[in-house]
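Hello support,

Our group uses your service weekly, and this is the first time we've seen a run hang past the timeout. The protein is Chitooligosaccharide deacetylase. I'm not sure whether the cause is the sequence or the server load. Input pasted verbatim:
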Amino acid sequence: MIGLSPRSFALLALLGALVFVLATSLRLETPSRAESGPVAVPETTTSSDKRIAFSFDDVPRDPGAFLRDGERPGLLLEALRHGGIEQAAFFVNPGRITESDGDADTVLRYAAAGHVLANHTADHSKLSAVSAGRFLADIDAAQVWLDGKPNLRPWFRFPYLDEGGTNRTKRDAVRAGLQKRGLLNGYVTVDASDWYMENLALAAAKQGKIMDWNALRDLFVESYLESANFSDDLARRTLGRAPVQMILLHETDLAAMFVDDLAIALKEDGWTIVTADEAYADPMVSMIPDVEMADGTRTQMLAAERGVGNRWYMRNDQKVAKKLFAERVLRE
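Update from on-call engineer: The timeout came from a worker crash unrelated to the input. Re-ran successfully.
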């Protein structure tokens, strides 16, 4: 069990002020400090060798349901600092950046704070939906923008975690293309579909529904904590050891509001937060799975290659996630 972080108290005050500004589009229930309860997290077995790094996809991301324009980057950086996350990886889509929107400065701001940048294609292409040549061209377009930026790493992350699906020819062509370009697959191992939770919050805001802020925080934190322990168990069953886990988040309002609460919960559960550099120095980086469906986390694919069962974390099922959101956040 963890308590509400001091920074979350400040967020409650911020969100309370936002209620009046956003009243026409959002009804957000934010309990007072006295009413704020502890984050409920599942009981798990701690282990001193549990290590995890943080990453954020889709940078820059569209506005969310809670924060005003321009507030997210500063709030996210403060959350990372407060949570003890010294170096996260930001996977950038430069095709979303224009000269007038300030997003380029935001990306550089993340790097200036000690975090690292990497390639996520320019336009967030889905490999299963385009040719290998077009996909590699999208990678190249992103790299043109990224080259010369501070704290750049030679990593590439597949949008949608789609590495070609069942098309082995396309999969192998892109893998060869990445190797030719000197880019490492910036895989993930921990996912709890925060992007879908964000979509549900956006939909609720547009409909003027009341959302329980504490319940939303709890759901976010416990889902990722569960997913981390699920992936740790899957890796031990698959590899016989505990690799460094890489958590997938997106540059959302939810991340900016709750990532420090998540970091605190992970530490209380026995996890050590490490850098993205350390995560991609793990021997798992050289383990390239040969599977029928090239999609999902690296741990899932390695488990599938070895015939290990129970590979999917249940809250990544949108039906399950939607039901939990409705019951706990919307109280429906």
